[in-house]
Amino acid sequence: MPAQANANVVALQLEKVRDKVPLLYERDDILLTMIQQRGDVEKVSSRNMRLPLQINPGGKAGSYNADGGDLGRGSGTSYDVAQVSPIFFRFAIEITKLVEYATTGRERAIENATKREVANGMKQFRAFLDKLMQTAGNGVLGTINSIASTTFTMAVPSGAALVYPGQTIQIYDTTLTTNRNVAASVTTTVLSADPINAQTITVDNVPAGTVATDVIVHDGLTGAQPVSLFGIKYHQNNATTGTWLNLNRATYPVQLQTPRVNAGNAALTPSNVRLAINKVRKSLGINHISKLIAYMAVEQEHAWENLGITVSQIIKEGGASDGNDLDLLFSGRKTMSGIPIKSSVNADQTRVDFLDLAHWGRAVLKDIDFYEVNGNTVFPIYGASGGLAASYIFYFDTAFQVWDDSPRTGAFIDTLARPSGYKTAVTGDW
Amino acid sequence: MRQRGNRRGTIYRAPTQPFARRVSTRRHDHVTPQILVLRETHETPENVARRLERAGGINRFGEPNYRAVWGWNRLAWIGGKFAEHDPATGSLLREVVELRQEPKYPAVNRWHIERWLPPEVYGSPSAWYAQTIERENGVSIPALGPYPSRGEYEHCFTLEGPRGEFMQLTPTNAEHIARAIEFSRHVSRSRKRSSIDDRERREDRAYDEWAYDKLDDAVPAFRKQPFVTVARGNDW
């Protein structure tokens, strides 16, 4: 009988926790998982999923002459079809042989080590996908503002918020045409990131030709104009050129445009919020905003608190601790002009998005699970020599795309100033 | 001058028939008419207004800094092009460019606490119009109405339970909220920020703990260690 290898034990432990993986992934505390898999389109094939959209209403209204007048012809509703195709995402986790030695083969110790890797890996994978949800569908995680040796200072709004230490990234030119890493045949890994103060990223290798204004994209994207997860800035967009879910924005400049309020680099005010909400009410009907959420970065939540018209987080924390009737008031939702707030550390720091999640959905080709080949979920690593390396690898993988069947249902405020105390990398001031 | 006492609300009812019913002898026409409540309004009780004034003081115009309003009573200007839809089919009926007064908050059947903000919060009148003027069909219209030269009351809090259930307005609730907001106003910005950061860290830790607990559910009880229950001496 062959000796028990650590990979066998790790595989056994992965099988034990396998049914917990979707549970850990789908917890709806981040925007990505607040967007539900929709029953009507939940499972899609590798072909494009088609979303029929009512573009223009039908019928001809008017008065007529009942004394023999011509009533005229009619018209019907016009439709077009938006299309989405899922993107495959993976998250690779390696366990070194050291785990086996450190845990001396005891099952509980290995169980704990595996559990830790699964929990940490899933947390990191969710964070990665949630960061992609903040992007414009091209995988751009940030723009380089200046370069000092191997340190990039990143431009706000994204700053250094959308990367994490240890992440493999790629650098493209500003037009997303030239992949600097491919051209220079180097891999770039983030060594450290400071998304709070300096908005800097330090990397191990800077590919030749990298300049300020270049952009950083995630690993796995290839070619010019790469396509990634269609995030908030893809769907909530007031552009009238380009494409949206395979439709030409220029063909439907009004129908595909999300109402925008330009804050002009000023601080958030109640009138910005009312303008944005009212734009939705005017296009959809006065009483059709009950499902909106106000999605924003913690910086803008702070800016809203600074206006002095809301109960601050400090009070809410105190109030929720004991259970009398008054304190219940403060354990409820924080709102922005009556719209529930959902804040995130990953969201654009200069933007507030009003989202009606009833119109958003996820087209899923493959649910989250361990990547599996012939029943195996743990795979050996090979060294440069072709021999075995002293580590094992397993993956989470999923395939999906995010869609929004009514871009006019939302609104957004952009170019907001950040409250004082947050360093702006562009100008370097506080 | 403020009205005295607790005024009862006003209920605006829709007609039960949009057009006069024609006389009919058919039996099914003699059904009980249904009343559809379109708009229910309530005035703020005097005792609540007094308590709010005591908690938040008065502004430069001698008006209270805080007030409680019923959602249907709180109207605000909305200007621009309105799309009107058929309630039955959702299809677009017409588009109208106008300035209207409509309920300011989405929760129309709830009490709201508002705080007065001075006009300077809204910038200068020229900045106000520069930002809010919308042009539709050749008509310029201020999307938020005229400049709030006497300031404006803004939403602070909707009285409802954690699951969105109705909560009655009482002087104690209203005062408690106003005092909490006043307290918040005097907390330093850095403390407010660190409090939000702390919440994020707490939520992060909560996910970790929850995830570990969930993964623990996947392993056998007592981690497959044999166990027996042992009676304790004379306790029986």
Structure description:
The complex is a heterodimer of chains A (430) and B (236). By secondary structure, chain A is an alpha+beta fold. Chain A is 24% helix and 28% strand. Chain A has 11 helices and 20 strands. In chain A, the strands form 5 sheets. Chain A has a 6-stranded antiparallel beta barrel. In chain A, a hairpin with a 2-residue loop joins β4 (140-148) and β5. In chain A, α1 (6-17) crosses α5. The radius of gyration of chain A is 25 Å and the shape is globular. In chain B, β7 and β8 (139-142) form a beta hairpin. The radius of gyration of chain B is 28 Å and the shape is extended. A 3-stranded antiparallel β-sheet of chain B has the order 3-6-9. In chain B, 27% of the residues are buried. Chain B has 236 residues and is α+β, with helices and mostly antiparallel strands. Chain B has 4 helices and 9 strands; from the N terminus they run ββαββββαβββαα. Chains A and B meet through α5, α8, α9, α10 and α11 of A and β4, β5, β6, α2 and β9 of B.
Average pLDDT of chain B works out at: 82
Major sheet: arrangement of strands of chain B: 3-6-9
- Give the tally of β-strands of chain B: 9
**Relative strand content of chain A:** 25-35%
Distance between the termini of chain B: 76 Å
Strand content of chain B: 25-35%
Which residues of chain A form runs of ≥5 with pLDDT under 50? 319-324, 424-430
What is the strand and helix layout of this fold?
The complex is a heterodimer of chains A (430) and B (236).
Chain A: H1 6-17, H2 21-26, H3 31-34, E1 49-56, E2 78-84, E3 87-96, H4 97-103, H5 107-132, E4 140-148, E5 151-154, E6 168-172, H6 180-184, E7 188-194, E8 200-203, E9 215-218, H7 232-235, E10 243-244, E11 247-248, E12 260-262, H8 270-284, E13 292-297, H9 298-306, H10 313-320, H11 325-330, E14 335-336, E15 339-344, E16 352-356, E17 360-370, E18 379-382, E19 388-404, E20 411-414
Helix pairs in contact in A: 1-5
Chain B: E1 10-14, E2 36-41, H1 46-56, E3 66-70, E4 75-85, E5 92-103, E6 111-117, H2 125-132, E7 133-136, E8 139-142, E9 152-158, H3 171-185, H4 189-216
Antiparallel strand pairs in B: 1-2, 3-6, 4-5, 6-9, 7-8
Helix pairs in contact in B: 1-3
